[in-house]
Amino acid sequence: MRIVFKTSYDADLGLFVHRYQAFWYVLLLAVAVGLPFVMNDFWIGEAALMLIWAIAGMGLMLLVGHAGQPSLGHAAFMAVGAYTNVILQTSLGWPFLVSFPLSGCAAALAGALLALPTARLHGIYLAIATLAVSVLAEDGIVMLAPWTGGVSGIFAPDIKIFGVGFNRYVNAPGFYWLTLGVAVLVVLGYRNILRSPLGRSLVAVRDSEISAQAIGVNLARTKAVSFALSCGVTGLAGALMGHFAGVFNHETFTIFLSITLLMMIVIGGLGSIHGAFLGAIVITFLPLAISIVREFLNERFGTASVMPPGIETAAFGAILIAFILLEPMGIYGRWIKIRTYFELFPFCRRDMFRRQRGYLRTERIR
Amino acid sequence: MSLLELEDVTMSFGGLTAVEGASFAVNPGEVFALVGPNGAGKSTIFNLVSRYCTPGGGDIRFEGKSILGCAPHDIPRLGIARTFQNIELFEHATVLQNLLIGRHTHRRSNAISEILHLPGVRAEERRHRLAAEKVIDFLDLQPYRESLIMGLPYGVRKIVELGRALAVEPKLLLLDEPASGLSAEETDDVAFWIEDIRKVMGITVLMVEHDMGLVRSVSDRVLALADGKTLVIGTPQEVQTDPAVIEAYIGLGDDGADE
Ligand SMILES: Nc1ncnc2c1ncn2[C@@H]1O[C@H](COP(=O)(O)OP(=O)(O)OP(=O)(O)O)[C@@H](O)[C@H]1O
Ligand SMILES: [Mg+2]
Q1: Stated pTM of the model
Q2: Please, are residues A262 and A72 in contact by the beta-carbon 8 Å criterion?
Q3: Which of B6, B20, B42, B44 to mutate to test the pocket of ligand 1 (most atoms within 8 A of CB)?
Q4: B89, B161 contact by CB (below 8 A)
Q5: Looking at this predicted complex, what is its ipTM?
């Protein structure tokens, strides 16, 4: 068991809990940067996709995991990011370095606008309201066909930064490093939010709106800020997703994408940055794993398709149900438990993580 | 000038009048207690002052200015902090985080500087931490600093909630049944703390409490309520011996005003 002695308040304000932790994260980053030197382009592409999922997941995690506002509309904000990014590049000829941040801003603005009418909604009602946004977005894309290309879709131009191309097929490592850079920046910003008053006010709104107000948190404004930040980050992921896909139309950003995003962060573990990454790994590599198994079965038994076509969706669903029943804290929650068990060995008690008796909360003054 | 003033405040929920013509003034530096049987309207008065409810009639003034135009989140900025009868803490955060959230009204940085973690943000965080640590020392919460609220026993939660209200550094502290559910020793601690809050920190206290022993030992003046109506305002002794108060408690089939 490791005991960390803290000798100043700054020790709690740093990015990492202690030096050992910093060591592991720096090592992880080094491995991530070095990946293209040991892997072929296919796997680098999958890794880039995983990072894009993780960025979108972090956006949604901020809203759902930290501010406690469920959203089933985040595919719409990915769409806003993706289309803004491409339209600014193709129609106005702006470079990626300008259009990319602006695509995040556009999604953030859209999110803040959504937060205004939904500020008084909670839980399932908010989920349904945001679900409607997801549905509307699909129709919106079709209706705005002159700009969005509608049903036939739109081509994402090659990313060019100072003359260097970042096409995911031509320069797979470049595209991967680009997404890695964005992901690292988002993680840093997210960490900074969590260790500042803003992050604490989000947690306050999530855990008790009543007492959040009693200590001076403006609910409507805090929710608007959380929607804006969340949708902004998801919009950035959408812009990258657009370049990754190369061509996309209204069917790229369906309600199913929104649900997948939400499932991803629940499986990964709500309320932690790790959860977004762990969920992204599952979402990216599950289809791969399934297709590998499928190929194996085909070879072995010679049957054309032993597995029905909808198997991926079914597998996602089954995994989600298993997590909600067995480990509501997600993969990251399970990891914390395993780690604590070994850190405290042999003193870990079975009910260490069990919640104490619940106390009635004030419902009267809602 | 009195710190908090209620003038003929009336509040009804549908057909039920929870508070009727309440008028009283809390002077700076005093401990003012509200007592009364269950459902008398004590918590409703707190909710009126916190602006969770809007009175049907009357006026509520803080430092001479009406607060009826304020939203609930403006109230702590004026210098009023509160606790809740059924503890309302941030369950999935640590004790320290709960106290730091209590510092929200003292936030000076904006979202952008916080996302970038500019040096000013860090300096401010150190100040917030220092203030939170002072509260931790005052309430002896050191063993629980890093514990999640959801794992803490009832008595500790109660004290953490008091701490969160103190972290606001208010002028007026509203305590809704600070000793309910606490053991005799814990209640004694609360009595000492209330004394110190008033004398050392100079914070005025308005509290609701059923434990007449605690009310007697800490409060300067007491207001007795029953069914939303004010029965009497006076010293603890006067209120306890008032016939109308005894009547209100006995009328409920209780064992007298001493409970
Ligand atoms: N939001 C509300 N809606 C409807 N009725 C309410 C509401 N809040 C309070 N009441 C009613 O107003 C009356 C006074 O309630 P209040 O909570 O102020 O009592 P109290 O004096 O705090 O009692 P206790 O000692 O049990 O805490 C009760 O009859 C209660 O049912
Ligand atoms: Mg009450």
Answers
A1: 0.89
A2: yes
A3: B44
A4: yes
A5: 0.89
